[in-house]
């Protein structure tokens, strides 16, 4: 997620801005920039890479002035480069942005038709031009910004300044956060509290659909219609480290809670209920080849591999194509039999995992079509594949994957619908029903988050166990595997995931009253089979933690602990069932005092074999 800061006051703005951006580094970024207004107008400095590059540039080309804006960019539209870095200038206007503008291509076409030249690949530059266009004829910066943001579709927070209105910053937001810091003879703007805690603890939080006009001595809040909004600032008492984690104890906990928003961002603009389509324009260049494929191989590592196992169900059921799944580390060395009618889908949060990149190379050598599902824009895997569907989870800081997983599921589901429609194996009305369920998933995951305190109680009771067994069937067998992996990674407890029906062929020997057995038991086609498996556990004294979407007397009687998640279409149940598993792993790790965000021996991105 991009970091946003703004300053107006009496200090050297570039020092304040770079310091504030440094405190947002934990969000992840690939380029940075600042703009400061002085007697010569607004001057901009931008750099690819870490903030230290920007600091070096500011030594050789310093910026003087007491008002400015700064930005760290996490690329979404356009690769990381100096031209794509923020702030963006258009005429007299300079602007920074966090979020995604859905209708930027239409707006870009309109601006180009008016003779404007856009020099970056970003959606952001369009907003700067729109504001500049609106300022024609002497319209004030705040009015022009209001007119411009009313034309934008998507989620955004922006901060704008203009050569023609020195001393004034204008901020506006729909979804991504903006906090305003009130100081003595100075005011500040940021995307996140820690950026500005050093200067003030008195903060105003901009709400969706609000704007702020910020000068050295005042902050005026209005809505997008221009009505004045008034409210008192809040005093923030967090210490700087807590503030970075958004008030959560760990990044992992924060990222679990970010899933509804990450899913909204991943699904945005990709669901068309009226026609039953999942428009993924990024696939248009490979559309002809997609129409000819007759087999799919999915490949990935770790959590992403679990996502591919779920994806196989989506593809089998919605596109009616044979699909197989392979660990990337195995696939790349097994001389897979592939041809030009094969599609190889690789899934990777980082886009830099060496084994997954190796799998792409192997697939390309064999002439297969390659598609990446990636979170990091312009990463090695994204660049190497024939096409890429980006998840928009934002940076994942905690080593253990959470929001990357659920957004990967969302991207795989969208792709399965898109392919099913392309191959005429899924009709529009069926697709529309499925997509309507998918559209509700962010809301249902939000509801599932309310299980956190209940899961914490359960975790306390089982935190001393030496082993855990996770069981699931069908599309939720991979969810059981993911639950077990999370527990292993975070708490260092041995855990195994198994298909519930397979338990009696071996793992049943492990069951004693010391073994917690975590079971996915949604009310689906195989529910009665799952109940039979649970009875096998119960009769051997196993401790059952069951997760269902429809409680029954039977389940309540058998389970030691029962967790109920919101109900959705059975194919989409992995989204909701995953949430309590993430909490369970997290809370057990907290109970045992593990290093939750950086578990021992693990790296966030495994770039070596
Ligand atoms: O960046 P990638 O998605 O390619 O990473 C794949 C695995 O290394 C990753 O999912 C790993 O298993 C995580 N530690 C899971 O929490």
What does this protein look like?
It is a single chain. An 8-stranded antiparallel β-sheet has the order 3-2-4-1-10-9-11-15, covered by helices on one side. It has a 7-stranded antiparallel β-sheet with strand order 5-6-7-8-12-13-14. The chain is α/β, with parallel strands linked by helices and 609 residues long. The chain is built from 20 helices and 25 strands. The site of 5-amino-5-deoxy-1-O-phosphono-D-mannitol (M6R) has 16 residues, from α10.
Average pLDDT rating: 94
Distance between the termini: 29 Å
Structural class: alpha/beta
**What small-molecule ligands were found?**
5-amino-5-deoxy-1-O-phosphono-D-mannitol
Summed up, the helix count is 20
The amount of beta strand, in percent, is: 15-25%
| Amount of helix | 25-40%
**Rg, nearest Å:** 25 Å
Low-pLDDT stretches are none
The geometry reads as: globular
Sequence of strands across the biggest β-sheet: 3-2-4-1-10-9-11-15
Q: Write down how many β-strands occur, each being a DSSP E stretch of 2 or more residues.
A: 25
In quaternary terms, these chains amount to single chain
- Tell me about the biggest sheet? 8 strands, antiparallel
Notable traits:
609 residues, alpha/beta, 7-stranded antiparallel beta sheet, 25 strands, 36% helix, binds 5-amino-5-deoxy-1-O-phosphono-D-mannitol
Which SSEs are present, and which pair or pack?
Layout: E1 3-8, H1 13-22, E2 31-38, E3 41-48, H2 51-60, E4 67-73, E5 88-90, E6 93-101, H3 104-113, H4 124-134, H5 141-149, E7 154-162, E8 169-173, E9 179-182, E10 187-190, E11 202-205, E12 210-214, E13 219-223, E14 228-229, E15 234-235, H6 240-244, H7 251-257, H8 259-267, H9 287-290, E16 295-300, H10 302-319, E17 323-327, H11 328-331, E18 342-348, H12 354-365, E19 369-374, H13 380-384, E20 387-390, H14 403-422, H15 428-448, H16 452-462, E21 467-472, H17 477-491, E22 494-499, E23 516-520, H18 527-538, E24 543-548, H19 553-558, E25 561-564, H20 573-592
Helix pairs in contact: 1-2, 3-4, 4-5, 8-14, 8-15, 10-14, 10-17, 14-15, 15-20, 16-20, 17-20
Bound molecules: 5-amino-5-deoxy-1-O-phosphono-D-mannitol (M6R).
5-amino-5-deoxy-1-O-phosphono-D-mannitol is lined by residues 301-304, 348-350, 353, 356, 399-401, 489, 602, 605-606.
